[in-house]
Design goal:
With 150 residues, the protein is α+β, with helices and mostly antiparallel strands. Helix content is 15%, strand content 39%. The protein contains 2 helices and 9 strands; from the N terminus they run αβββββαββββ. The chain has a 9-stranded antiparallel β-sheet with strand order 1-3-4-9-6-7-8-5-2.
Length: 150
């Protein structure tokens, strides 16, 4: 009887952890291969959580361009909140990114681990200050990636 009670209690605890929000806010560092962009009066927001019972991280982010945002040069990167495992980088953990060209169109892209400490973005033509669009105030990109932590 005690074994059954312990099993039920353990099961309830696990179910509670699945419904617990458990999110932690995280503002990533936005960089580029040549000259780093600067968010200015735009905003970088994000949050992450560990999936209960294993070592997977879910990371959600948004980069909103402002009037004084500068876009740097070269491919863009965003730091991740928890260092990824070597396998996550090797085997290409990836997610999705939504790109909003305000008042014009929206696009889809891919976000993937570039190193154990940062993600990169890709669409046809890359993800830079002028691709997949010329970025202006109000434009944004947002996405999510899940990866194994180190």
């Amino acid at each position: 009887e005690q074994i059954i009670t312990d099993a039920v209690n353990d099961h309830e605890t696990r179910l509670d952890s699945l419904t617990d929000e458990g999110w932690t806010n995280f503002v990533g560092t936005w960089t580029a291969t040549s000259v780093n962009p600067a968010i200015g009066d735009g905003a970088i927001t994000g949050r992450y959580r560990r999936i209960p019972g294993n070592n997977l991280i879910v990371f959600e982010f948004k980069v909103l361009m402002g009037g004084s945002t500068t876009y740097g040069t070269g491919q863009w990167y965003l730091s991740v909140p928890v260092t990824a495992s070597a396998d996550a980088v090797t085997y290409g953990s990836a997610g999705s990114v939504y790109i909003n060209d305000t008042g014009t169109t929206s696009r889809a892209g891919i976000v993937s681990l570039d190193t154990s400490t940062r993600i990169t973005f890709d669409t046809v033509g890359g993800f830079t200050s002028t691709s997949p669009q010329t970025w202006t105030s109000g434009d944004h990109f947002r996405g999510q990636i899940m990866y194994e932590e180190a």
